[in-house]
Structures are given as C-alpha cells and as structure tokens.
Amino acid sequence: MNRVALLCFLLLCGRIVSGQPSPVSIQVNAAKPVGEMKPFWAFFGYDEPNYTTRKDGQKLLTELQQLSPVPVYVRAHNLLTSKGNSPGPDLKWGFTDAYREDATGKPIYTWTVVDSIVDTYVRRGMKPLMEIGFMPKDLSSKPEPYEHTWSKGGNIWTGWTYPPKDYDKWRELVYQWAKHSIDRYGKQEVTSWLWEVWNEPDIGYWSGTFDEYCKMYDYAADGLKRACPECTIGGPHTTSPRSEKAYSYLTRFIEHCLRGQNYATGKTGTPLQYIGFHAKGNPEFVDGHIRMNMGVQLKDIQRAFEAVNSFPELKNIPIIIGECDPEGCAACAVTRDPKYGYRNGTMYSSYTASSFARIYELMDQYNVNLRGAVSWSFEFEDQPWFAGFRDLATHGVDKPVLNIFRMFGKMGGQRVAVQTNRGLTAANIIANGVRAANDVNAIASKNGNTIGVMVWNYHDDDVTGPATPVQLTISGLDKNKVQVRHYRVDDKHSNSFETWKAMGSPQQVSTDQYKTLEKAGQLQELAPPATKTVANGTTTFTFDLPRQGVSFLQLTL
C-alpha cells in the first residue's frame, strides 16, 4: 500500500482527525474472578445533621438506600453539639441539644432531635456510623465562645472542640445515649451500627492534646460498652496520612489502644474494633482550568493500609475510610475558590468511578479488610442552584456523580479480570497523576447471571477534548445470547447540570422545569435495551466514550 492509500485508509477509519485518540481495547473475562465486589462505597456523610429531616434530605436518603443492594451507612457530625446562640443550622454547623446541665450541674438528656435523625435512617433500613461528638456546651472545658461563624468568615474552632470538663460525665453521656438507643430501637438493631469518637482529632476539630483525645476515647468506649458490650467502636478518623503528623497520630493511637493504659479502667488496652482514617485529593486551579490530583488521595489510602499492616495484631481488622473525597471542603462553594468548580458536572463523576476502582486495587494489593469508604457529600439547604458544593443533589435534583453510585449499585458478587492497553494502575496515578494520556479503564463484576462493566474516560485536567473510541470484549460467557443495557453519564446523559444550563441557569425554577431537571438527574441509557449474540463465549462492543464520561454495560445471561 503506497503512502497516499495508507493515509486514505486511516482517514476512513476516523483515527487521524484533529487530536482524536486512538482506540482503547478493554478485555473482560467473566469466567475469571479476582476478588469480592464489596460494596464499601455504600457509606455517606455530612456536617449538617439537621438537614437529615428536611424534605430534600429525606428524599436523598431514600434514593441512596434504593440504589444500594446492602444497608447504607450514614456518618454525620454534630450529633451531640449544642445550639448555643446560633440562629439555626449553617454550613459546617448543626446541633441536637442532647445534653445540658441544671443549676446544680445535674445532667439533663434530651434525645428528641437525635431521635428524629436516627429515625430517618432506621425507617429506610439505613445504619448510622454514630459519631460521638462534638462537645456539648455545658460539658465543654472552654464553652465560650461556643458556636462558630465560619460561613461568615469567623473562627471555626470554638467551644465545641474542647475536652470535657468532667470525663465521668462524658462517659455517662455516652452510656445514656447507647442505653436510650437500645430502649428505642432494640439491641439487635443497635448492635448492627458502628460507633466512633470525634472527627479528625489531629487538627482543629480537637483543641486538646493527643493524650486528652485518648482519654476522651477511653471514657467514651467504656460508657458505650457498659450499655452495649456487643456494640462496635473504632477510630480515630484522623486526616490524610500522607502527612507525617497524621500518620504518627494514627499509629500512636493504635499503640495506645493495643498496649497503653486505659484512662477509664486503668487496665491495659482499649476497644478498637475498626480503624478509621480520611483520604482526600487536592485539586488546583492552573492555567485557567481545574486540575485534579487523585494521586494524593490514593497515597493516603496506601499509607494507611501500610500503617495497619505494620501491626500484626490488626490482621483482618475492618477499615473504614471515614471521608474519601477529591478534596476536603464539602461546604466550600465555587464562589469561595474556582478549584471547587468540578463538582456540578462530569469531572466529579468520572473521578469517582476511576478512584473507587483504584481503591479496590489497593485493597487487593495490601490484603486488607476494607469495610467502608465514606463519600462526604450530601445536600445543602437554602443555597443557590448548582452552587458548586460537594453534594449529591441540589434542591432535590440529583447531580451526575450520584449516578456513578447507581452504577456501583448494579454491581455485586465477584469482581472479574479486566485488561486494557491504555489504563493506569494505582501506583501509576500515585507517582504521576493522570496528566499525560487519558485514563480509559474498567472494573467488572459477575453476580449470578448478571455481568456489570463500568468504563470511564478520566483525565486530571478539566479541559475539553475528543471522545475516545473503545472496543470492549467480554469473554467467558456460557450463553449464545445476552440481554444488554448500556447506561451513560456524560454531557448529554444523566446530567441535570447541563440541562439546567440549557434552561439559562435559572435560580427560580418552574414546576415543569423542575420535573425536567429531576428526570435529567436520573441514570439514563445510551440506547434501548438490546439482545447481543455470543460467539465462542465472547461478545464485543464498540462505542465512543467522551472525555470525563462513564459507561455502564449490564449483561444478563
């Protein structure tokens, strides 16, 4: 073939056009299991507990449970925080007024608001990851100033962050809470929950020392176990362990629980039934666009897994990534910093697909018992439409990222082998990010007669680019035909944000517009369901996947 003929051939194939990527080949072997498809993604959390019982909060919680094949765990801050002088819930602020003292210092327990929150979970079959915090005003060793005014630019680390003035009263508070929970919900229900003490004690959330945190944890665990010996407690839910300070705090805490003197009992050791830590990415705004950094989030997870494995006594202990996100400020709108502008569209959704797949990879590599990875994302009340918060829905309308969890909800059973000529490994991303070629890869599972394959086209840079041609081959099939459904998240599918922009980005939405947005927020199919022929146990799909797009193919044998 001469050069002119070759050029014509390539042009006809559509591969030499301006910047168009070459095809990516992905092979899935449905007959080759590689590990359990653990639904560790079915964990969610948020700062503002009072939003739980609002209309949009209840709607979102219902959707989260409906998308998951297992009970969803919910972690909320501020379950013991006092209202103080605050006018109401706010960004990074909520309260329950569960504890106060009378004029003589006698504790008064009021569980009304806590119950309304937990009732909302339990009615839906959800489970609380019950966070014991923060410090009630009447129990704080430095109660004034108490409530914070972070949303107005004020100091956030106020009286709610301080150690208790009386550790016996702190222990009794936890005991009474657990006892009340058993009385209200029954022991069988309460023992299915998870409990923890505080949040990120290695930074400003805790204004005490390391030793004071250990003491607070010991007293809380003692109170919980007195009411409910079968209940599960863990921690310390420290920040990103790629930081030496956080890594040291985590390992010192583990040492204390395994071999230190228990402040509450005087004995050696403290209950530690799971390990909790947080993992965050670090986006930047560079050269006029957002650049994500998945590598540092995966580095956090890698370092924490190494820390756990350094203690032989902890082999197979459950691990919970208590916050697992592209960065660390859910309540920061895009108006606060342009780097948060990734959250409304498909960058957030493709990042989630790619990063969670790599968490499975690290789980396998380090042979750990990963129980949960909490997406710190919920919904915010009384805020503009698509304000750029890290949330799953706005005004009750689902954002594209929520549809990635709907895709994960369709997976189960065993993960099966995937090979690709273009995908990156977790180690690649930790070392170099996704800064050169796009990461086009997949994760696949087989559950009975159903096979699910999630394919993403991710890049750290939030810039436009051409779609990537994908050739997906699935082998190991034992039928002559399969039923196929192909779901998609991209600019045209499962994307309420693009629909809203096409409306002119209204802040006053009509009833008909709301219905259109609500429908656009649901998981949509790229094409109608179809029947596909299988030859020699194999079938092949070809499709173009837009940059930051995610496809999910569901095959029923």
Automatic annotation (TrEMBL):
Pfam families in UniProt: Glyco_hydro_39
Domain Glycosyl hydrolases family 39 N-terminal catalytic: 25-529
InterPro entries hit by this protein: GH, GH39_cat, Glyco_hydro_39, Glycosyl_Hydrolase_39
GO biological process, one term: carbohydrate metabolic process
Hydrolase keyword on record: yes
GO molecular function: hydrolase activity, hydrolyzing O-glycosyl compounds
Keywords per UniProt: Glycosidase, Hydrolase, Signal
Region forming the signal peptide: 1-19
Active site: E200 (proton donor)
Family that this chain belongs to: Belongs to the glycosyl hydrolase 39 family.
PANTHER family in alphabetical order: ALPHA-L-IDURONIDASE (PTHR12631:SF8)
Protein name: Glycoside hydrolase family 39
Annotated source species: Fibrisoma limi BUZ 3
